[in-house]
Every structure is written in C-alpha cells, then in structure tokens.
Design a protein that fits this description.
This protein is of the alpha/beta class and about 350 residues long. Helix content is about 40%, strand content about 20%.
Length: about 350
C-alpha cells in the first residue's frame, strides 16, 4: 500500500521552512512526501532543492489555484491514498497510521480528516476543519468545534471517530481511485469550498466521510488569503452557490436558493453598514459570476448524482448562531441532522 503526502505550495517558503522538516520526519516509513508548486516566485523551490534534494517536486507553469493545482499534480502520482496537506500545517508523530487504519477497515469511507487545532492558540480547534465539517440545509458550512467565528477549546469532547459531511482540504486523506474516478476537485472553484463539493459528490456516490481524533495536526490558517480578504468573501459566496447548484436534489432548489438570496442580501447589507465596501461588492460580484456560469454548471449537474444527503443540519445555522446564540456544536440537537 502506497500513501502520498502532497503539499501544494504557492510562495510559501516561510511555511515550508517552518513545517516541512517535521512533515518529512513524521511521515517517514508511512508515506512519500511530494511538493506540487504553483509557479512560486519566492525562494520555495530553491529552498526545497537545497535542503531536501531527494524530495520530488512537481512544478506548474502558472498558479493553478488549489483545485486545479492538486488535480494536475495528483494525475502524476501513483498511490493508493492521497493526503492533501496545506503548507501551513504542523503534523505530529504518528499522524498518518490511525487515519489509514480507519479507512482500511471500512471500504465505504472515501475520505477522512484528523483533528485540526490552531497553531496560534493550541488548545483551541482551528477554523478550517476543527473536528469535522457539516453544512446546514441552506449550504452554510460549520464544524464540530467551530461555528462561524466561535472556536471551542479542545477538552476531549470530540475524541472519537465520527461520520461527518465534509473533510477539510487543509489535511484530507482520500482514496486515490475515488479521487480519480470523480475527476478530483472542481477546477472552477479555484480555491475555497472545493473540498465540500468533492465530499458531497463522494456522498452522492454512496461513500462516507469520516473524522479520526487519533491523529492531530495544527493549522496556521489564512496562509494564502487572510480571513478578512474580500477575495475570500467573493470565492466563498460564489463557490457556495456553485456547490449547492451541482449537488442539491431538484426538490430542494426553490426553498434553498430563495432563502439564500435573502440571507446573502442581509450579509451584503451588513458588510455595507460596517464599512466593508469591498466585501459588499464581493457578494454582488459573486452572484453575477454564478449566473454567468449557469450553462456550464448545468452540464456538471447532469453528470453528478443527486440524492438526499446524510449529516445535513436541517435547520438554519445562521439563525441558530446569531439569534439563538448557539455557539457550540453540542448546542445543536443531534436529531436535527439527516440520517
């Protein structure tokens, strides 16, 4: 069995210097470490070649983004399992075997993630994946351990193996044959939420997504685009609509999109009132971009199976969090998740 840890890098020399030695050390004997470089203009490639000359580097001729960057690289790698790993991740000893063991025991598991904690506040979960991702019925993502900007402290409350809706792209273990069968991440997403779309497609094919607490990694977060970036606002709003359009069962279209138009309008107005003018225009631009892509999205939808998905929160997490003050995953009723 062959496992490949693939780090997609773009101008991440600082992170590579900080975290790559530990990745190599703690992956020895368990996986091959490979760098896929998105045409970095800093000293990333030179650093790798000088410090780790035996390390394989796959170089792209331009910045392909997260999705296409990984797809192009993974097409060139022979393995049974891919581990998509951000360059700003600090791994820990024995981080690979527990997840692979979980997936080997159950062929229905298509993808899995470890526990993600914050590099900045190491007792707390990290935004990008925490203890496993979910969405509500309107497509808003959240995690066990993270609801919007509220991060829980890790006190062992999620020390388990659990089925989730999506595994974080910051550190995602996936069966290579399934990755290739589904065509990998959707290139059109460029970056953000492509892993949610991919996991949803896996679920539509009958596979499960899992979380494994026996493996822990630490994530810096916002390494390429900071959380306050209006570009991130644009991508998140646009890509969220794209993943809903591709994967929702037909009978959910009208209630979901009509509600989202209203809620996105509220979000845009909130940005405007707070003086975040670029974010306000980013929401508008995101919607226009989505409508321009409808023809192509219809083609993609026609090649995707749509089924009522498990592990979807059947209420509105926006209202629950901001109005009802539900800040922790444990505040949500487990009976409100689709089975």
């Amino acid at each position: 069995m062959k496992v490949a840890v693939v780090i997609l890098n773009w101008n991440g020399e600082t992170f590579l210097r900080q975290f790559l030695p530990t990745v190599i050390e703690h992956s020895a004997g368990a996986a091959e470490v490979i760098i896929a470089d998105n045409a970095s203009m800093d000293g990333s490639v030179a650093y790798i070649r000088n410090t780790f000359p035996a390390l394989r580097i796959i170089q792209h001729n331009s910045n392909k983004g997260f999705a296409a960057g990984y797809n192009l690289a993974l097409q060139q790698i022979e393995a049974d399992y891919f581990i998509l790993l951000n360059s700003d991740i600090e791994v820990t000893p024995n981080w690979i075997p527990p997840v692979i063991e979980l997936m080997e025991k159950d062929p229905s598991v298509g993808a899995c993630q470890p526990k993600l904690r914050s590099c900045h506040d190491r007792k707390k979960f990290e935004y990008a994946g925490a203890a496993g991702g979910f969405i509500d019925k309107y497509g808003y993502p959240f995690c066990r351990g993270r609801v919007f900007q509220h991060m829980e402290e890790d006190t062992g409350q999620y020390d388990d193996e659990a089925e989730i809706f999506w595994a974080t792209g910051a550190c995602m273990f996936v069966r290579a044959d399934l990755y290739n069968k589904l065509g990998g991440l959707d290139d059109d997403f460029f970056a953000h939420m492509e892993e949610i779309d991919f996991c949803w497609r896996l679920k539509n094919e009958g596979y499960r997504i899992m979380y494994c607490s026996k493996s822990t990694v630490y994530h810096v977060g916002g390494g390429t685009l900071p959380k306050s970036s209006y570009k991130k606002t644009y991508l998140n709003f646009r890509n969220n609509f794209m993943l809903l359009y591709k994967n929702l069962p037909a009978n959910r279209f009208f209630p979901v999109f009509s509600t989202r138009l209203l809620l996105d309008g509220v979000a845009a107005f909130k940005f405007l009132m707070e003086g975040h003018f670029r974010d306000f225009f980013a929401v508008s631009r995101a919607h226009l971009s989505f409508y321009k892509r409808l023809t192509f999205l219809k083609i993609k939808r026609s090649t995707t199976s749509q089924h009522p998905a498990k592990q979807v929160y059947q209420k509105n997490i926006v209202i629950d969090h901001f109005l009802r003050r539900k800040n922790r995953f444990s505040d949500l009723d487990s009976s409100d998740f689709s089975k």
